[in-house]
Amino acid sequence: MASKKSKKKGASKKKPASAKKGGGAAKKGPAKSTAGKKAAGEKAAPRSGKGWLVGAGLAAVAVVGVVVFAQPRGGASGGGEGAEEIAEEVDLTEPLQLGTTVPEALRVEVVRRHPHDTDAFTQGLLWHDGELYESTGLEGRSTLRRTSVEGEVRQRVDVPGDFFAEGLARVGDRLFQLTWQSGKAFVYDRETFEKVAEHDYEGEGWGLCFDGEHLVMSDGSDRLAFRDPESFEVVREVRVTRIGRPLRRLNELECVDGAVYANVWQSDDIVRIDPATGAVTATIDASGLLTRAERRRTDVLNGIAWLPDRERFLITGKLWPWAFEVELVAR
Ligand SMILES: [Ca+2]
């Protein structure tokens, strides 16, 4: 079902040698995560205690061992190829630095699922006031749309055919939509979908969310850029690390309760990032949401929206038939 253009995109997004793939079984639960109790869009507050700050090198190595060996797993197919695992990113023979954050191991637990347009190559997803806003990609097929949670498209605007739409974020009554390689961000009136502004930027555009103060933007690398929503200028940047190692291919984003959630391109992993330090404080296994047959007809997981009223996440992917309402539980 994925078109040549989607493959073109795939071919262009280089895969580092450390590429990994999600998938696998959950271990235990439920233990409802404390993740995100406030609505996205509230001003970010410093987080603490979400990851475990390990104070002693030996203890850190021991805990990392548990995390790492819990990761390699087969099972549900991810969107990408290759079966490399996180172990490649973590050298167990090398002592961790003091203070290295060891991510909490979480998984998703599906509460219910909603239909999702299988023509929507999801690149950005957010929830506001009872409705979903979605940015879809591919050249000639890119859109901005407002839908009901049940998937009914209520409003839609087509993006000009030479643009490949990407991440989406809301700042007040404006919607910001990135484009993949055009260096152009479109700003729309949230209500009318009328384009009210444009901004230019360097590099690629992947994911976008608003933390209440800045737009947070990913570009496929391990970098998150924090941009002023008025000028779109970069105010600061942070490099994202998981257990002290760079974590690249950060894609769709969601700002929740002072944390930044990102799904990792071509994996079923979603990570929770401390935006102050870039440290990953939780790795969320979101594998197994689609059946094997559904996976064959679809592209990768890409789309995280926080539902503040329900205190749950909605997760979907490119061309997925479903959006899943999930809670985060311990693995
Ligand atoms: Ca999002």
Quick description:
With 331 residues, the chain is mostly beta strands.
Reconstruct the topology from this structure:
Elements: H1 4-12, E1 52-53, H2 57-70, E2 101-102, E3 104-115, E4 122-128, E5 131-136, E6 143-147, E7 153-158, E8 165-171, E9 174-179, E10 184-189, E11 195-200, E12 208-210, E13 215-218, E14 223-227, E15 234-239, E16 241-242, E17 245-246, E18 250-256, E19 259-264, E20 269-273, E21 280-285, H3 292-296, E22 301-307, E23 312-317, E24 322-330
Parallel strand pairs: 3-21
Antiparallel strand pairs: 1-2, 3-24, 4-5, 5-6, 6-7, 8-9, 9-10, 10-11, 12-13, 13-14, 14-15, 16-17, 18-19, 19-20, 20-21, 22-23, 23-24
The structure holds calcium ion.
Give an account of the 3D structure.
The structure is a single chain. This protein has 331 residues and is mainly beta. It has a single domain (4-14, 23-330), classed as Lipocalin (Beta Barrel), CATH 2.40.128.630. The chain is 8% helix and 40% strand. The protein is built from three helices and 24 strands. The chain has helices spanning 4-12, 57-70, 292-296, and strands spanning 52-53, 101-102, 104-115, 122-128, 131-136, 143-147, 153-158, 165-171, 174-179, 184-189, 195-200, 208-210, 215-218, 223-227, 234-239, 241-242, 245-246, 250-256, 259-264, 269-273, 280-285, 301-307, 312-317, 322-330. The strands form six sheets. It has an eight-stranded mixed β-sheet with strand order 18-19-20-21-3-24-23-22, with no helix packed on it. Strands 4-5-6-7 form a four-stranded antiparallel β-sheet, with no helix packed on it. It has a four-stranded antiparallel β-sheet with strand order 8-9-10-11, with no helix packed on it. A hairpin with a 6-residue loop joins strand 5 and strand 6 (143-147). Mean pLDDT is 80; it is low at 1-88. Bound molecules: calcium ion. The site of calcium ion (CA) has 9 residues, from strand 4, strand 18 and strand 22.
